[in-house]
Structures are given as structure tokens and as C-alpha cells.
Amino acid sequence: MVPPVATYASPLDEPILQTKKNGTQVNSKASDEVLEDYEGGYRFAPIEEAQVSRAMIKRYFNMMYERAVSDVVIVGAGSAGLSCAYHLAKNRPDLKITIIEAGVAPGGGAWLGGQLMTPMVVRKPADRFLTEIGVPFEDEGNFVVVKHAALFTSTVLSKVLAMPNVVLMNATAVEDLIIRPDSKGVQRVSGVVTNWTLVALNHDTQSCMDPNVITAPVIVSATGHDGPMGAFSAKRLVSAGLLKELGNMRCLDMNRAEPAIVNGTREVVPGMIMTGMELSEHDGSNRMGPTFGAMMASGIKAAKEAIRVLESHEIVDGKVVA
């Protein structure tokens, strides 16, 4: 016997709460007075718990459905990834840009400066990006100082999320890459394999927790240097046979490190652009430590590279066909 199918009225179509007024049924949302009173009389509009669940579920899973095919996927929402998203979304508002961030809190290591101190140092000319997004700073000649790194990160994050063509899936890990031959038989990164981060961290404790996938013609990897989930794409390219070995990040030298990261930002294999500190692991370049200009400039260059790749290929349903 087939069990009955559960049906329900949409909360957007019919009111859940009703009261009687003069013998007539009325929507309590219209009859209950909402009041902003900070002297003890503050009253909220009424709500049902199910309405909260449905409001979140409808929007989140509609977003997942719509972004199963994206134009650009950015892996990592640190300073490089967010700078890339900003420049890309601003200059190509037609693109569907999807950011995947493993942490609950986006921003990577850009919430603080060096050794847990708060100021952020940015070498010129990367200060021009701070001016563009409206972050104030003190000018020290060859570099500028933002009073708190969180001021930069919160500003660029809020501007990115306000753009209608950008979505962010945080607490979501990229577990693998989609790699398949293109029209010429060349192996191409063609998407990402995703899962909730808490699931990705517990594959050793539970079995058969299969992932989801997002198809995109361009993947921008900005997962940072080696760490719990850092340098993920660089390491996966090695195990997938697309990169012989990691270059491994060299010791700190700010004057060598920052130009190497910005100038080295590129499509490292077909379909994947690498940006930020992940490049130091891929290429074997120096680390720069607590100076952040290269992260911003590398993100901007990654956006320019993504546009170049998109404009030089024929793309159908998220796949490069020619």
C-alpha cells in the first residue's frame, strides 16, 4: 500500500495564524500590532517556527539548484578570493559567481595582521583597491596601514555579498575536483565536488556520505598555503597526475614574495586559475608574512584571467565545448 503524500499550504499563500475580530476571521499578522518600544513594550510580528524553516530551506536549496551550473567557482573566501569575487562581479555582472568556503566565518587569515595584532599593512600600489572599496588607512610612504584588518575583510565581504550575481556557500568544503577531457582530449578542471565541512571532517567516523557537484568552466582556487584545508587544489593536482610535484613554499622574503604571487597568478592547468598563497605551495615561491597587498592584487589578476578564459572559449551549460 502506498503511503499518503503529505500536503500543505504554502505559508506565502495562506496565513498560519488567525484570530477573531468582531466575529470575523482575520490574519493575525494584520491585527497584531508591531511596536518598537525600548521602554519595556517592544513587540515583534508573530511567526510560526515552520515559517522560519521554510524561509531558509526554500532560498538555500533554490540557490544550490540554480548554482549547480555556475560560470565561475571561487574556492576559498580569504583576502585573495574575496578580492577576485569583487573585481569579477563588478566587471561582469552577467556571470554567476559561486564562492565555496570551508570555514563558518569567511575571511581566511585576514581578520588580523601579524602575530594576532590588529593593524593590516598593505604595500603600494595595492592601496588603490582599499580606496576603491572605501577602506580608510594611514599613509606611511611606501605602504599604508589599515587600523584593523577586520575593517578591510568586513568591507570587501559585505560589498561582495551585496552583488546580485554572487553567492557564498560557507561551512562547505571542496572535497575533490571534476576533471575530464575537453574537446581536444586535454584534461580540464571542469567543476568542484562539495560537501558540508562537518561531513568532510568525519569521513573516518561515518561511511557513505557522498558529495554534491558544481559544474563550471572556470575554477579559481584561493585556498591558501598548506594547512588543515589549505593548498587543497595544488595538492590534488599532484595526486591527479596534472602536476608532477609541489614547489613547496619558501621562507619569508616580502620583497620577493609579493610580486611573485601577483605576477604568477594564472591558469595553472586548463580550467583552474590559482591565486594568493596557494601559489607559493604550487610554484615554490617565498611567503610574505603579515603584508596583504599581494593577496588583493593577486585576486584582481585572477578575476582578469577568469574573464580572459571565459572570453576565449565557447561554453554551453557550464562546459567548454570549443
TrEMBL record:
HAMAP family for the chain: THI4
EC number: 2.4.2.60
Listed name of the protein: Thiamine thiazole synthase
Cofactor(s) demanded: Fe cation
InterPro entries for the chain: FAD/NAD-bd_sf, Sti35, Thi4_fam
Keywords tagged on the record: Cytoplasm, Iron, Metal-binding, NAD, Nucleus, Thiamine biosynthesis, Transferase
Function field: Involved in biosynthesis of the thiamine precursor thiazole. Catalyzes the conversion of NAD and glycine to adenosine diphosphate 5-(2-hydroxyethyl)-4-methylthiazole-2-carboxylic acid (ADT), an adenylated thiazole intermediate. The reaction includes an iron-dependent sulfide transfer from a conserved cysteine residue of the protein to a thiazole intermediate. The enzyme can only undergo a single turnover, which suggests it is a suicide enzyme. May have additional roles in adaptation to various stress conditions and in DNA damage tolerance.
Organism annotation: Heliocybe sulcata
Annotated localization: Cytoplasm; Nucleus
